[in-house]
What does this fold into?
Amino acid sequence: MSAPTPEARQTCIRDCHALVPDASGVLTLARHQDILIQGSRISEIRPTGAPLAPGVEVLEGQRMIAMPGLINTHAHVSMVIFRGLAEDVSIERWFNDFIWPLENNLTDADVYWGAMLGLIEMIEGGITTVADHYFSMDEVARAVEGAGTRAHLGWTAFSSRGYQELARTASFAERWKGGAEGRITTCMAPHAPYTCDDGLLRACVGHANRLGVGIHIHAAEDMNQTLASVNRRGHSPIQVLQDTGVLGVPTLIAHGGGLLPQDIELLTRHRAHVGIAHAPKTSLKLGMGLAPVRALRKAGVPVGLATDGAVSSNTLDLFEALRLLALSQKHDALDSEVMPLAEVLDIATRGSAAALGMGDRLGTLAPGYQADIVLVDTRGTHWQPLHDPMAGLVYSARASDVHTVMVDGRLLLRDRRLLTIDKERVLAEVASGMERLAQRVPGSRIQHYRP
It folds into this structure.
């Protein structure tokens, strides 16, 4: 008998605790549930106990929490190959003395193997979707295609590299739009208002409109950048995005640690298609200041959770990021009651999906949504005694607790075993280039940082 087609495949995650919205829309934990999956989508969530149809594949979910696959709203995945090479330095030195000289070493093969390593780390940590902003993105797309994950990909563009580079960015976005059986979406990816002039930003908008894609850009990363822009140009970085038309297309803004009150008002007017990717670990580590997450959410602007690249965050671990999100927002407000459990988990799931413009199909466990599902094992000592599983997800969970990962109903990780990537080969390929990749040639860099 032939195997069922992907569309006909039926799966049941049996007797799990499911992170789902209640009748009022607040995330809660529904205990002892069966999640039924037809092909690539969730078909039903119901209390455990009803008989299953013949031929349904069963994944046992006892002592597991089922949650939507985590969405990393801003990363430079291949930068894992530079992990640990830029520690305890200012953001100016981080760019000028470390990152941009190191990136002079990159080859297409480096980007591919770095992407594969990053995808392994993210799959093992329950991340099913990533918004990646980097170079040699055909290699990243190939890695995503083979790994079976979902990705929103953009090829970084700088004004210093000219419009030829921008044409390559647009060509990539057109070539891979809808790729990997629809798991890849693409965007234009100008680096930032401080590295892209207004003409290039307007050209990006033109390409985005022509191709029917959005824009992924760094902006107002810290307050120094914002004040420098105001002093030099009379406009904040967010106002520059407004003036050049960027906010008129679906836009994902990375960081936002330097947002002014008037910037939030401006973003509120575009909240239907503009989101913020907040990477709390990078913000804390580089002293960039936190995004005003509470004010943005109050204004209805989608905020998603991100790791950024592993050179600034060291890990691609969103459980760590969501914990830091909760703690840093409480500290910033001097109020332990802000950012309660359900809100933190909402940002990591539905908020992240909304920031990417995918809230209608990702980020929620409900019938009709894509079957991007993670099972988190609660049997570890650090979870016991398990009085409140939602508190465990926010304050106790580790990436290593991720037991099973599926995307579009297809298993990528089962019982902590990778099913789509040869991990040992990836580790060997990355290790073979370590010495070459760590070299920094004085005065040689791909760009110069000036806020």
